[in-house]
Amino acid sequence: MSVTDIDADDLADSVRAVRETEPLVQHLTNTVTINDVANLTLHWGGLPVMADSFGDAGEMAEAARAVVLNIGQVPDGRVEAMHEAGRTANERGIPVVLDPVGVGSTPSRDAVAESLLSELEFAAIKGNYGEISALAGVEADVKGVESIGDYAEIEETARSVAESTGATVVASGVDDIVADADGAVRLTAGHEMLGEVVGTGCMLAATIGTFGGALEDPREAAVHGTLAFGIAGERAAEMEQSGPGSYRTAFRDAVSGLTGDVVADLALGDRIERLR
User: Fold this and answer.
1) Domain ranges across the chain
2) 227-275, pLDDT tens digit by residue?
């Protein structure tokens, strides 16, 4: 079945697969969001491990079901550990997810992303519109780690990155674009409050990695993980909360409560649109 034809039962099956598989997901991420990343992995049903030092990173990747590399911070030794964990994952045939946080904002981050992309194979790359545009070599406006500006051609840009890397690409924004060499889809799910919480991009990459650790198809993992993430964001906005701080807590609760049975009762409607 095409990912554009999925219904609530398909998404429910993926959510159940994560909770039943309990994939060990290794994160080499930044300290700003490390707790949120670990907890969200756990709330989806995965098992988080944050082994990010050289030696330990490669050894832990021997047991993991997926590896997520986040370049939000790149202190001495972290990049080497990322390469080590990524090589081990590639050798074992388990998915590696790249979150190129802030690429396009400084030459140092650009160099780290280039080194990882040149030496490792990625099942998925998740970035905001600006980051994905920067990877494609087109004009992007990235200030710090935030994407600003207009990205009218983001669908084609995401396809370009997918074709050049062989990865499934998730460009996150008001609408999320998921693209691979065969095509692209637009996902309509989420809530504006997600943009008021630092680290939701990192948490989305963690979600895609967690789904990737349980599902065989990387494109299905990217589409279903991104869609489930957005739906949880909407459900959190319906819970009792009074601002970004309480919304952050509500979002984690919403992820934990988004079980297969809950998803099966949802009306997905026109949330997935195939693009040219």
Assistant:
1) 8-275
2) 999 999 999 999 998 899 999 999 999 999 999 999 999 988 789 888 8
Structure-token match 């992303």, residue found: 113
Is 172 known as a binding-site position?
A: yes
Backbone angles phi, psi at 241, to 5 degrees: -160, 155
Rounded to the nearest 10 degrees, the angle between the axes of helix 200-212 and helix 218-238 is: 130
User: Domain 8-275 carries which CATH code?
Assistant: 3.40.1190.20
pLDDT, tens only, 65-116? 999 999 998 888 899 999 999 999 999 999 999 999 999 889 999 999 999 9
Q: Length of the chain, please?
A: 276
- Do the annotations mark residue 199 as ligand-binding? yes
Q: Alpha-carbon distance 100 to 111, whole Å?
A: 11
Using a cut of 0.90, tell me whether the model's pTM lies above it.
yes
The pair of three-digit structure tokens given for residue 143, joined into one six-digit string: 């200030």
Q: Would you say 246 is a known binding-site residue?
A: no
Locus of tokens 């904002």: 105
Cα distances (Å, whole numbers) of residue 182 to 155, 166, 179, 222, 232? 13, 10, 8, 14, 28
